[in-house]
Design a protein that fits this description.
Radius of gyration: 34 Å
Distance between the termini: 75 Å
Low-confidence stretches: 112-116
Mean pLDDT: 88
CATH architecture of one domain: 7 Propeller
CATH class of one domain: Mainly Beta
Strand order of the largest sheet: 4-35-34-33
CATH superfamily of one domain: YVTN repeat-like/Quinoprotein amine dehydrogenase
Structural class: alpha+beta
Number of helices: 16
Length: 987
């Protein structure tokens, strides 16, 4: 203070203080306010200013780092003040910009960051983890403070007074915890009326803390459930021991106790399997279900087994010793090569058997690995600045391709397998003889890093993509000047030739892809629509389409000529890193940082197959040469091989662009007909192969579709007020049945195929001649919309279901009065006869199905299990079972007499509109609002066990064996090793 009050020989004291500390500083001055007399407030830096500061600091560091402008602009825009426009003049939240830049600097300095593509949110999340770890034993207390007191139930930030914070922390430890969290900007402090309060420093941190809390609560609930089951198992095991001591006198009690202990163990494993399914670990859930002895005695085992099979589990998981950056199939599809963070490549058998071949020699992480065209060799690219060519069987020494002065980010073989082209951050690409002899051809000219390089199909040209905003087309021999493809306003991340070599597609950080002529002049076609950087672009095998992947969370499929609107593949919850076509061009697989891959129809509507199970972000996903499998590479240290169609049980029929409202088998069980709100009906092969026959012509949603008894015709009911009769093969024009004064809600054939009965919102049902001649018989009497109508097996009667809460049984010729079935407390959504005509089952929005005598006598049997409205109910062909479907996203299979528990089939992601048996009773088909129909096999327990074993070749890991099977570590590792030996994966 003496120096402040009496400056010495012109020496002045300058204090620099972050504004968020000013209030606390002012409160502690105690009369020394001279320190604030000449204060100057420096306003927040703008995005543009912060870019310049960060670039200069990085360039002056040791070692110097070059941070491209486009990278920093995107990063700083993410750190702008909430509510401000995404421009260079937006203000930056300096504390968090500092954190992100420091973390990015450290990653680049230590070589952990593979490329320049960074996001602020993951860095902040990692920063939070590191900050908590620095608190050592107090980390759990700090985490609890953040989770319990600083985020609301909806995930938003809340305020906490200093007094409340100190009360929530262990005595004597509050200062250290609060100082650490505040100093690291995890917490932001404020002053109000002389007291301090805290809040989380950023919405992103609140999101992370909220996710941590939800995950902790889920695990605590699962642990409580498992501990309860475990305690029950222990109690019953104790009873077993006690019973053993009196076994001579009480042998029955001993057997009972043993059975109860076994049942308790089974229920405990069931709880574990449910937890694994909730976490997306369907393969491990399958393995845990197989550990249950006598599953027929365990309530819900079949339901859970079906639930596990309905999820897309990998066929096999390959475990590397670090993050996997790339995974590719061999040309024959029999092997997979992976490139890993630890500098090794490994070659695995696709079927998951045998030992992997380890290719070791690089001194830095691997960025790519690929087979030669004949499958005999592998080329790897590494952060150590080299590429290497290896024999795929691991024999002999590798050929080192050395010369780059920066990380090598890609390496690929030429079409004839005689050369390799590499791309490097040193700004060059190089073409090497595959045997390493002679000198490399250096392709020099880019003004920044080369992000990718690829040969043309004839091997005569190479295209490179660079952060300098250009792509260049070179002669493979390096002669002549390259053709420069200039036009992008951001870094070009990838470039690839079309299958005929005449075109090139580039993907850029500027949010566009561009299609260029490979040779000769001309302006590119700009594919514009993404709202974030485009990081990959690939041609379809026929060259007519392009798939792009973007950090806006979508992929898009474009016509190569740029005409029309692209098909937007939307559903991922994070950046999409890659998008590639299947060999037949009919599908696209995307890999995302949300940890999933998804398989989409390339052209036309339909829901994707979601490949879920990785615990980290995905770097790539590619098809096998035959298109039947997909391999994914993930930062969780694994690569996984999946069936491209996802689950085979059930068979999922995808293609409709709207909710599927009905699905039914044809008379031979070989076909399925579906109706959808997309305005079409479709006739599919029941096994899901081939393309469906599309019946298109209605002017509104199609509500139901049914095949005729001879399988030659289809009748559809539509919101356009008509029913139509089509040839099942789609040829010719449909016959239109017109006359209802409202939407037509259902239409079905009579057992002899000569008549059709329709139901309508006009409150009537009508019986028509199937050839459209004559006048229909009108069944009038309901007081509201008629939702369904169906014939009896002999064709003499019709049962209708109505929104008036009743079902009615009519004579098909319209004579006499109907029999009224009354008792539901809500809308009756469907009603059908049993195969013998003696019973009727109805479904209702009251959440029940009811089985009535067809003559109306007696009380109905009430089936309660659904947790919402029941949409449909139907008998099996032998009349011994029933299937119901409902808004709770399930179909349920019951014994027709109501005894026992229903089998619950889960897999749809929306209400299940209908469910029906196949003619042989061995399958079910369901229709869902998620746009799919699904054909489920009805399997016995031994059949289910066989599928659970065969669908995945992974072994239950030691940590899961310890957690769920209560095995000691040595025993768990021994069992795991034994399982691996059965697959030949260990010695």
């Amino acid at each position: 203070m003496r120096l402040v009050r009496n400056p010495f020989r012109g020496l002045q004291l300058v204090l620099l203080l972050r504004e968020d500390y000013l209030g606390r500083f002012r409160a502690r001055l105690h009369g020394s306010f001279e320190l604030l007399e000449h204060g100057i407030r420096l306003g927040p830096l703008t995005v543009r200013e912060m870019e310049e500061v960060a670039r200069r600091l990085a360039a002056s560091g040791v070692p110097a780092q070059d941070w491209p402008e486009h990278e920093l602009r995107k990063l700083m825009l993410q750190m702008r003040m909430p509510g401000q426009d995404a421009t260079g003049e937006a203000e930056v939240q300096a504390a968090f910009a500092q954190i992100v830049c420091r973390a990015l600097w450290e990653e680049r300095a230590t070589g952990r960051a593979v490329d320049e593509r960074v996001e602020a949110e993951p860095i902040l999340h990692r920063y939070l983890d590191v900050t908590l770890e620095e608190l050592g034993p107090l980390a759990a207390d700090a985490r609890r403070l953040l989770e319990e007191y600083l985020v609301a139930s909806d995930g938003s930030r809340t305020l906490l007074t200093e007094q409340q914070a100190r009360a929530a922390l262990p005595p004597g430890q509050a200062d250290r915890v609060l100082t650490t969290l505040e100093g690291s900007a995890v917490l932001r402090a404020g002053e109000h009326q002389g007291s301090r309060y805290f809040e989380l420093g950023h919405d992103w941190l609140a999101k992370k803390v909220f996710e941590l809390r939800r995950e902790r609560l889920r695990h605590e609930e699962a642990r409580r459930r498992i501990e309860w089951e475990r305690a029950r198992w222990r109690r019953l095991r104790l009873i077993s021991v006690l019973a053993l001591t009196v076994a001579v006198a009480m042998g029955g009690l001993f057997l009972w106790a043993m059975a109860q202990a076994e049942r308790a163990r089974g229920q405990s494993l069931m709880s574990g399997a449910r937890e694994l399914l909730e976490r997306g670990q369907s393969a491990m859930a399958m393995k845990l279900l197989l550990e249950i002895h006598r599953p027929e005695r365990i309530r819900g085992w079949k339901t859970l087994a079906y639930g596990a099979m309905a999820r897309s589990a990998p066929e096999v998981t390959f475990h590397a010793s670090g993050a996997v950056y790339a995974a590719r199939f061999s040309p024959d599809g029999q092997h997979v090569v992976t490139a890993s963070e630890d500098g090794t490549a490994q070659v695995w058998r696709t079927d998951g058997t045998g030992l992997s071949v380890r290719l070791k020699g690089h001194e830095g992480l691997l960025t790519s690995a690929a087979f030669s065209p004949d499958g005999r060799f592998i080329v790897t690219a590494s952060w150590d600045g080299t590429a290497r060519v290896w024999r795929a069987d691991g024999t002999g020494r590798s050929v080192e391709l050395k010369g780059h002065t920066g990380p090598v980010v890609s390496a690929t073989f030429s079409p004839d397998g005689q050369s390799v082209v590499t791309a490097s951050f040193d700004g060059t690409a190089r073409v090497w003889p595959v045997d390493g002899t002679g000198s490399a051809v250096v392709l020099r000219g880019h003004a920044a890093r080369v992000e990718s390089s690829a040969f043309s199909p004839d091997g005569q040209s190479i295209v490179t993509a660079s952060s300098d905003g250009t792509a260049r087309v070179w002669r493979t021999d390096g002669k002549g000047a390259p053709r420069v493809l200039k036009g992008h306003t951001g870094a070009v991340m990838s470039a690839a030739f079309s299958p005929d070599g005449q075109s090139i597609v580039t993907a850029s950080w500027d949010g566009t892809a561009r299609v260029w002529r490979a040779h000769g002049p001309g302006e590119p076609r700009v594919l514009k629509g993404h709202t974030g950087p485009v990081v990959s672009a690939a041609f379809s095998p026929d060259g007519q389409s392009i798939a792009t992947a973007s950090w806006d969370g979508t992929a898009r499929v474009w016509r190569v000529d740029g005409k029309g609107e692209p098909r937007v593949l939307k559903g991922h919850t994070a950046q999409v890193q890659s998008a590639t076509f299947s060999p037949d061009g009919q599908s696209v697989v995307t890999a995302s940082w949300d940890g999933t891959a998804r398989v989409w129809r390339a052209h036309g509507p339909g829901q994707p197959v979601e490949l879920e199970g990785h615990k980290g972000l995905l770097m790539s996903a590619t098809f096998s040469p035959d298109g039947q499998r997909i391999v994914t590479a993930s930062w969780d240290g694994t690569a996984r091989v999946w069936r491209a169609e996802g689950s085979t049980k059930p068979v999922v029929l995808r293609g409709h662009a709207g909710p599927v409202t009905s699905a039914a088998f044809g008379p031979d069980g070989q076909r399925i007909v579906t109706a959808s709100w997309d305005g079409t009906a479709r006739v599919w092969r029941a096994d899901g192969t081939g393309e469906p026959v599309v019946l298109q012509g209605h002017a509104a949603q199609v509500q139901s579709a049914a095949l005729s008894p001879d399988g030659q015709s289809v009748v559809t009911a539509s919101f356009d007020g008509t029913a139509r009769v089509w040839r099942a093969d789609g040829t010719g024009q449909p016959l239109v049945l017109q006359g209802h004064a409202g939407v037509v809600t259902s239409a079905v054939f009579s057992p002899d195929g000569q008549r059709i009965v329709t139901a309508s919102s006009d409150g009537t049902a009508r019986v028509w001649l199937a050839d459209g001649t004559g006048e229909p018989v009108v069944l009038r009497g309901h007081a509201a919309q008629v939702q369904s109508a169906a014939f009896s097996p002999d064709g003499q009667s019709v049962v209708t279901a109505s929104w008036d809460g009743t079902a009615r049984v009519w004579r098909a010729d319209g004579t006499g009065q109907p029999l009224v079935l009354q008792g539901h407390a809500g809308v009756v959504t469907s009603a059908v006869f049993s195969p013998d005509g003696q019973r009727i089952v109805t479904a209702s929005s009251d959440g029940t199905a009811r089985v009535w005598r067809a003559d109306g006598t007696g009380e109905p049997l009430v089936l309660r299990s659904h947790t919402g409205p029941v949409r449909s109910a139907a008998f099996s062909p032998d009349g011994q079972r029933l299937v119901t479907s409902g808004d709770d996203e399930t179909a349920q299979v019951w014994r027709a007499d109501g005894t026992g528990e229903p089998l619950v089939l889960q897999g749809h992601t929306g209400p299940v509109q209908s469910a029906a048996f196949s003619p042989d009773g061995q399958h079910l088909v369901t229709a869902g609002n998620d746009g799919t129909a699904r054909s489920w096999p009805l399997l016995s327990i031994p059949e289910l066990q066989r599928h659970l074993r065969d669908d995945n070749k992974d072994c239950l890991t030691p940590d899961l064996r310890e957690t769920y099977l209560y095995e000691k570590e040595s025993r768990a590792r021994g069992h795991y090793a034994g399982c691996e030996r059965t697959h030949g994966r260990s010695t």
